[in-house]
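pinning this so it doesn't scroll away 📌
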Amino acid sequence: MTPKEVMAFAKEHNAQSVDFKFMDFIGTWQHFTIPMSAFEEDIFEEGLGFDGSSIRGWKSIHESDMILLPDPSTAVIDPFMETPTLSLICNVFDPITREPYERDPRNIATKAEEYLKSTGIADVAYFGPEAEFFIFDEVRYDLGSNHSFHMVDSVEGIWNTGRSEEPNLGYKVRHKEGYFPVPPTDSLQEVREEMVRKMEAVGIQVERQHHEVATAGQAEIDFRFDSLLRCADKLMWFKYIVKNVALSFGKTATFMPKPLYGDNGSGMHTHISLWKKGKPLFAGDEYGGLSKLALYFIGGILKHARALCAITNPTTNSYRRLVPGFEAPVNLAYSSRNRSAAIRIPMYSPSPKAKRIEFRTPDPSCNGYLAFAAMLMAGLDGIENKIDPGQPLDKDIYSLSPEELKNVPSAPGSLQEALKALEEDHDFLLKGGVFSEDVIEAWISYKREREFNPVNLRPTPMEFFLYFDI
């Protein structure tokens, strides 16, 4: 839509308010709302000023004035507001220079797309994330200097087989058996269906929805791939809708990678392909039906995978999921059809248009704008430097012995390890000014000081179980 078309769209839907959404540095939507009477077409050119000093990961109070410029192509009616509300996704600009703010994740995603075009390699990168999540009936947690605990619950949880539910009717999902039982074992069909309806209302084309492997309400809803920036926008709507629909059913949803001990975590397997002038570039006569260009792209992802994890798996909780010896994509290898490798080449269709790679290591705690941009930059580095990905590993990697795995690199074992890898390997992200040294340094500093150190310093209940009586 053009700005003029947005004004007409708002009038057609009797919008009473306009909501401006933008992304903080770490990965959460922020917003503010104005009445329709204050909404003028020139806002798309002049923007709206706001105080950015309290936004996570942004610069301090002496540089706090910011400008939001709404993207007219993102206009939709928010599906949750009782008051008809026009919603616009915005980019953040410096009010003095009028330049895109370098720590705005959406600006970084935009620059990644621009860099791709400038290389002449391709004109569009398509991304298709499969963001898994849990739907719980209750969550409680607390912490202090002398205590900490967390508890989640679900009527589906296998631990509730003996609970008095007046009456308890059974149909609890056993560990690792949630893929894909019908109702009544799958108790969340209607919840996910409502999520699908809301997603379609904001322009997300859903392909399928289903229960996932874990007990206690693990779910997956897949939506159709899109270009990098548009896909990142849709991922934000996806998370917003999942959480708000769950709330409307008296439930709560989380994209934490590993909220449960002893069962599967939530990943975000991400499908990627490059196209130029309407033609797919990843199809060819090489291994798995790929082109040489696609293999180089894989080479770039694998070379930089440990550094990528600091962005694609950016929480301490991410590394409760990425554990060797379990069904997690920690082995930095590639293979066709093989879900035990970090990169899988899907073989569902012989069509060149369907040829893509699936990077299985990322999880849904990531900031989609930064994660997709970083994946693209790693892959392009592989193409530009013709990085050979080595031989594919067409085995069940989970069944290999330590001796057989000794030459297969592994994902980092902790957030600290991933941040160290990013410190040492980030030049590929700086090409074309897509990321900056300031962005990399700010990311590493925030993650260490605000996340890794507090978690690392705090005693846990498990440590009391193991060590209190020493």
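📌 and the second one:
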Amino acid sequence: MGKDSTVVTVISKVKNDTPKTNACLVVISGADLGKRYILDKTSTVIGRSSKVDIQVDEDAISRDHAVVDNYAGVVIARDLESTNGTFVNDVSIREQELRDGDQIKIGRTIFKFLSGSNIEAQYHDEIYQLTITDGLTQIYNKRFFLKEMEREMSRSVRYDRKLSLCMIDIDFFKSVNDTFGHLAGDHVLRQVARRISESIRRDDYFARYGGEEFALLLPEISKVEAASLAEKIRALIEQTPFEFDNIAIPVTISMGVAGLDEYRNAVSDTHDLASNINPFSFIKLADDRLFEAKRGGRNQVVSS
């Protein structure tokens, strides 16, 4: 998501100016989370001014920041020479035709473009997704993660299955925000989440736990295997700097790893363990090791 990757799409205005009414923008990250804006005008201006069609009150947004032109069958997003740029699917654009599901980022607010014959069903599905995912990183949110973690812990205890947990923290993240700005910080969060998501299985649970901290639950994986995976992820993040606005930003992570067998041993009354599952006790084991990794110099994995 850098201006170095600007895409310029030349699009001729469609002769028929009738708006395509079955299209809308849904806020998936920002102050008005879940709010829907129907694109029923030929031009919908987004910005900080009180006179625009969609007002987003953020310092990083220009007064007239971007416009979405809606002609029959074609919807186009255009940047209005804003200070911080308009991004479609993490790519800086001047003009871009939108496809169903495209994400438009303006400042720290992210809109999702929906179109199609069954837009009402799409909208309600999107609202459900907002209840389980983090808007910025598009991975699970903390609430959903804890719910699934409790279910996986109960299953693993009942059937004596392996289960491991990794707590992950971006090193010196505050300095990224302070040095490069919050937009760069958001970019780093999204890209760290993307790189880790691409390195795990579909059955794993990966969530933004809070701020710059992430949690990764690994069913059917022993602590030794989890520690090996964690080291691969740590190296993957360190090896390639993150780029934002033509600037390379070095990023590292620290990780703490714990196994469910340790949780069992830590619980004094194991007789009724299955009915007294406590995800926070398990998280504390991994979180304590994350703290050790940070105290020991950061950019490392601690599993014991």
